[in-house]
Design brief:
This protein is mainly beta. Helix content is 15%, strand content 41%. The chain has helices at residues 2-33, 202-209, 307-316, 363-366, 385-394; strands at residues 52-56, 59-64, 75-83, 87-95, 105-107, 111-126, 134-144, 162-175, 180-185, 197-199, 212-217, 224-228, 235-243, 248-255, 263-271, 285-287, 291-294, 300-305, 321-330, 343-348, 354-356, 370-374, 379-383, 400-404, 414-417, 430-436. The strands form 5 sheets. Strands 3, 4, 6, 7, 8, 9, 11, 12, 13, 14 and 15 form an 11-stranded antiparallel β-sheet that branches. Strands 16-2-18-24-20-21 form a 6-stranded antiparallel β-sheet, with no helix packed on it.
Length: 437
C-alpha cells in the first residue's frame, strides 16, 4: 500500500507541469489578444485616421453677451473682481424667501423667535490671492422693495429696488474649503416679519417678505464667491422657543432661498482699454487679429467666421470627408493665471439663434477634447468634427460662438490669441483637421 501510494504521488507530481502548460498557453493567449481601452484617452484622436492633415484659419471678433439668462440657475455669483486687462465687474444676487412646503407660514403667540440665520454654501472664492486659506468677506443683505415675479425671466442686466431695511452689513471670516458654509445672523429687524404673523398661503408669505438683495462689498480687496443654490445648506433658519403649558422647547424652522425660490443674478461690467466700447455700445465688436477676450457674467464671447475657408475648401475638395477636427484656442501672453475650467462652442443658424455644436451631444468622442485647457500645448481644445463637416456640406457659415462654460457660476476669465499668425508668434486660433476624399 505504501509503494502504491508513493508511486501515485510521483506520477501526479510528474504530470502536473504538463497539465499546466495548456492552461498557461490559454492565459497568455487571452492576455495578448483581448482588446481594451486602456490608454485610449492618452492618444491624440488625430492619429486614429489615415488621411490628410490640414489647418483651417478664420477671422474672429470679440462680441458682447447681451442676453444672458440668470434666473433659475443652480449657482450664483456674489462679489466683484478687478482686472488690469478687463476692468471691474460685480455680481449681485436677488432671491425670494419662500416656505419649504409650498404652504402658509404662521408663528403664533406661543412662539418666540430668538434669531434668524442666513446660510450659503460657497463652492469657490475668486480672489487675487487665490492661495489664501481664509477670506474676509463683507456681506450686505437688504430687503427688496418689491417682490420678484415668479412667472418672469430675468437676465444679467436686470435689477430691483431695495427698501431701507438692512438685515446684515458686516465682515465675516471664512475658511476656503471644498464647500464652505457662510452663516450670517440677520438683524433683529427681520424678526417682526415672522413673529406673531400668520400667512395663510405661500403666495401671501412671499409677497410680504418681498425677498433679499445679497452683495459682497469691495473694501479694497475685490473678491467673488460662488454660491451653490441647490445645496441643502443654502437656506434661512429661524430659531425659536415654543412655550406650552407643559414645557418650553427650542426648535428650528427652515425657509427657502435660492434654487427652490425664484432668484436671479445681476451682473455689472465696467470695461477698460479696447473693451471699453462695450460700456456704451453692446452691439459693437472688437477685431481679434491679436487678442480675443473671454469674460463671464454677461461679459464677452468670441465669434468665429469660417465663410472664406468653407467656400475655398469645398470648391477644392467637394467630396472630402472630415475624420477629425479640433478647435485650438491658444492662451495669450497677457492672460491671467486663474483660467476658466472649460470653454464651449455654439453655432448660429440661419435665423440667428444660437445652438450647441452637434459634437457636444456625443459624450464618447467629445471626452478629453471638450474645451478644457491642455497644459502641454497651452491651448483650450475642443472637438468640432461634425460641426465642420456640416459647414462644408451646407456650404454656408453663419458663425461659431465660443463662450466660457459656466459663465454664470465662476468669475474666471482669459485672453486667447487672435487669428493673425504673425502677430501671435505663429500660434493663432485655428482648426486642425484630418480628411480624406
Amino acid at each position: 500500500m505504501k509503494i502504491c501510494h508513493s508511486t501515485f504521488v510521483k506520477v501526479k507530481c510528474f504530470l502536473l507541469p504538463f497539465c499546466l502548460l495548456p492552461l498557461m498557453f490559454l492565459v497568455f493567449a487571452s492576455c495578448s489578444e483581448e482588446e481594451t481601452d486602456i490608454g485610449v484617452e492618452l492618444q491624440d484622436p488625430a492619429t486614429f485616421y489615415s488621411g490628410i492633415s490640414d489647418s483651417a484659419f478664420c477671422v474672429a471678433y470679440t462680441v458682447f453677451d447681451d442676453s444672458l439668462l440668470t434666473s433659475g440657475t443652480n449657482a450664483a455669483l456674489v462679489g466683484c473682481y478687478s482686472d488690469p486687462v478687463f476692468g471691474n465687474a460685480e455680481a449681485v444676487l436677488y432671491t425670494q424667501i419662500s416656505s419649504p412646503n409650498g404652504e402658509g407660514v404662521a408663528f403664533d403667540q406661543n412662539m418666540h423667535i430668538d434669531s434668524v440665520v442666513l446660510s450659503m454654501a460657497v463652492t469657490e472664492i475668486f480672489a487675487p490671492e487665490a492661495s489664501k486659506s481664509f477670506h474676509d468677506l463683507h456681506f450686505e443683505v437688504y430687503q427688496l422693495a418689491q417682490s420678484i415675479l415668479t412667472d418672469s425671466a430675468y437676465y444679467s442686466d436686470c435689477e430691483l429696488p431695495v427698501s431701507n431695511r438692512c438685515f446684515f452689513n458686516e465682515v465675516v471670516r471664512v475658511e476656503q474649503t471644498d464647500t464652505t458654509i457662510v452663516n450670517l445672523k440677520l438683524a433683529d429687524n427681520f424678526i417682526p416679519l415672522l413673529e406673531n404673523q400668520t400667512y395663510t398661503t405661500a403666495e401671501s408669505f412671499v409677497d410680504a417678505l418681498k425677498g433679499l438683495r445679497i452683495r459682497l462689498v469691495n473694501d479694497g480687496t475685490p473678491q467673488m464667491a460662488t454660491v451653490n443654490l441647490a445645496a441643502a445648506a443654502t437656506r434661512i433658519t429661524v430659531y425659536f422657543t415654543f412655550q406650552s403649558d407643559e414645557e418650553t422647547t427650542h426648535r428650528e424652522y427652515e425657509l427657502t432661498i435660492g434654487h427652490a425660490a425664484t432668484h436671479f443674478n445681476q451682473f455689472k461690467n465696467h470695461y477698460i482699454g479696447p473693451l471699453a466700447t462695450f460700456n456704451t455700445n453692446h452691439g459693437d465688436s472688437i477685431d481679434g487679429s491679436r487678442y480675443l477676450y473671454l469674460s463671464p457674467m454677461g461679459g464677452t464671447n468670441i465669434k468665429l467666421g469660417l465663410g472664406d475657408f468653407v467656400q475655398q475648401f469645398r470648391a477644392a475638395h467637394p467630396y472630402a470627408v472630415i475624420h477629425y477636427a479640433e478647435l485650438l484656442l491658444p492662451v495669450a501672453d497677457i492672460a491671467m493665471s486663474q483660467k476658466p475650467a472649460s470653454l464651449a462652442a455654439l453655432k448660429y443658424n440661419s435665423s440667428g439663434l444660437v445652438l450647441n455644436v452637434p459634437d457636444m451631444y456625443d459624450a464618447y468622442t467629445y471626452q478629453g477634447f471638450d474645451g478644457t485647457y491642455d497644459q502641454q500645448t497651452g491651448c483650450y481644445r475642443m472637438r468640432i468634427t461634425q460641426h465642420l463637416q456640416r459647414l462644408l456640406r451646407d456650404g454656408v457659415d453663419y458663425g461659431t460662438l465660443v463662450i466660457i462654460n459656466g459663465r454664470r457660476s465662476s468669475a474666471a476669465h482669459t485672453v486667447i490669441n487672435g487669428y493673425d499668425a504673425t502677430a501671435t508668434g505663429n500660434n493663432p486660433i485655428r482648426i486642425r483637421f484630418v480628411y480624406s476624399e
